[in-house]
Amino acid sequence: MRKFMGFVGVFLAIILLNPPTSMARPSKCEECHVKITPGIVKDFNRGKMSKTLTCKSCHGSSHMSAADADKAKLPTIATCKKCHKKQADQYLSGKHALGRIAMNAMPTTHMQPKAFIAGQKGCGGCHTLGLLDEKAREDKDRQYYKYGMDCQNCHTRHTFSKKEALEPEACQTCHMGFDHPQWEMWSSSKHGVTYLMLRDIDPKNRSRVPKCQDCHMPEGDHRVFTAWGFLGVRLPEEDKEWLNYRLTILKGLGVLDPDGNPTGRLDIVKAGKVARLTKEEFDKERARIKTVCLKCHDKNFVDANFKNADAMLKEADKLFAEAIETVAGLYKDGIIKKKPGQAYAYPDLLAFYEVDTKIEQILYEMFMDHRMKAFQATFHMNPDYATWYGYAKLKKDLAEIKELAKEMRESHAKK
């Protein structure tokens, strides 16, 4: 009996000193939430922050009962910055913090369903990044509450695990699919395949190959940037032939008008930092990412691969520019009519799928799908993706656009 009681005493001591993660800590918040949201309580107590923070640290103390639940504050980057100033400042200087600007810059965003944007079931699911504005904070329609997601996108709440955020899958939710298939390109490249294989066969040495964070967040730097940017455009361009392709693309993006003059969209490009607009800025970002590559590869290998990747983007731009000018010619000759509210009689690539003609739909896919894959796959070292999902598709698109343009001209002539 004495041995049994001794065992019980030891067991109780272990439980008291090391409570299970599902057990609520003794606080007013957790006494209630362990009943209504036990998963959140379990996640919070699973993480390291539970050792030093309480619910009030992030959510404030205005909400203390079911009657005032609407007073609970939702954390923003400013909340995280109180303890993680270095990482927050890095994040705010990078492109992820500008996600909302990029979404709102699209001319058709206002036309989309509320659930698609504000309800985060479409573009808004990834592009509600950055500081939470006060208007959103006062939004009483909880179904469409704009959370102002930032740190929580990678350090999933309420655990906020650094270990989780260091895995490549942390990037997969946003960086996959149609116009940004970085996950598919990396995971099927030699880098990705090797890393994923080593998880099972040699987990201690999987760090010998890079994952997303190693290249895009070197030394834990939360400022995520690339030289080419999402659109794959830059100014100035020393290659005169490429510059002509680039000017056509910028006209299609509405950054230049059909005569080549800058428009108001140039200011949006600057604000969203979606392109490098000085040689110094481009060279600085290119040099930064090259230093990461040089940790594993020699300089000749790195220089050759970047040179060939740039050349592939030029080849993609050559096909794309011809397609844009083909469709622009239909506008010029009145075969495609300018839509109400459309600034110029010229194809608007940022209208995306909000077009009335099949030929413009193909042009949209050529831009957002096939050019993106040809461009991005070359830099992610995935030749198969660059070929069959990128360059080959661009050629198919151009052939279809030319054929459709001919048919449309013949039909227009008959009328």
Automatic annotation (TrEMBL):
Keywords: Signal. Residues 1-24 form the signal peptide. Transmembrane segments: none annotated. The keyword Signal applies. Pfam families: Multi-haem_cyto. This is Multiheme cytochrome c. It comes from Dissulfuribacter thermophilus.
